[in-house]
Amino acid sequence: MSIPVIDISADTLELRLSEFAEVLHAAVLDGASVGFIVPFSFAEAEGFWRNRILPALREGGLILLAIEEGGRIVGTVQLDYNTPANQPHRAEVRKMLVHPAYRRKGYARALMVELERRARALKRSLLTLDTRTGDKAEPLYASLGYEVTGIIPDFCRDTLSDRLDPTTIMYKRL
Ligand SMILES: CC(C)(COP(=O)(O)OP(=O)(O)OC[C@H]1O[C@@H](n2cnc3c(N)ncnc32)[C@H](O)[C@@H]1OP(=O)(O)O)[C@@H](O)C(=O)NCCC(=O)NCCS
């Protein structure tokens, strides 16, 4: 049975902001490398959704998808297709997050399958992304057919320590 993926509008995000904040907050405290470092407060997590994602959703060029369990958001991903005029065929996969308590249930895979369906509907034929080298997301993307372009050393600081980590740049032609 396929896992239902929901399309989140700006109004829905505003209403359910704390649920999205909870997923981000829990993932970062668990060590997810998604742009933040600890200490990372719940208010900062809310601020990300309110100040960065809500305006982008209202502006257009961004698709926000989510998965619910028990009436709560437990996983989410974004397709950023607000690309320059010379890249109307490309989009970026952003902020793939599954709450640590809900992992290995196929939620990330279901989110990616729906995200790719949406990208194709927008006539986007190239998806790009980056992910910390060695993270669990790498086998996820590889199993979905994403190719590794290369690795940039010292790209980002580890979420929980001062260590600098490499990132892997990946792409998929749809
Ligand atoms: C990466 C992440 C999104 C995976 O979410 P998930 O819902 O647990 O993933 P799924 O259950 O859909 O698993 C899909 C595939 O991902 C890979 N995968 C997921 N978790 C893994 C793990 N712990 N070890 C190895 N491979 C893993 C596997 O290939 C898996 O396929 P399989 O179950 O058939 O072996 C989740 O671990 C997460 O939120 N991590 C922190 C945030 C992050 O790193 N996001 C990516 C930013 S680019």
Explained architecture:
The protein has helices at residues 10-15, 17-29, 42-59, 107-121, 137-143, and strands at 6-7, 62-69, 72-80, 90-98, 126-132, 147-157, 164-173. The protein is of the alpha+beta class. The chain has one domain: Gcn5-related N-acetyltransferase (GNAT) (Aminopeptidase, 3-Layer(aba) Sandwich), CATH 3.40.630.30. The chain has a seven-stranded mixed β-sheet with strand order 1-2-3-4-5-7-6, with helices on both faces. Helix 4 links the parallel strand 4 and strand 5. Helix 2 crosses helix 3. The protein is globular, with a radius of gyration of 15 Å. It starts with 5 loop residues before the first strand and ends with a strand. The mean pLDDT is 98. The structure holds coenzyme A. Coenzyme A binds at residues 27, 32-34, 96-98, 103-109, 131, 135-137, 139-140, 143.
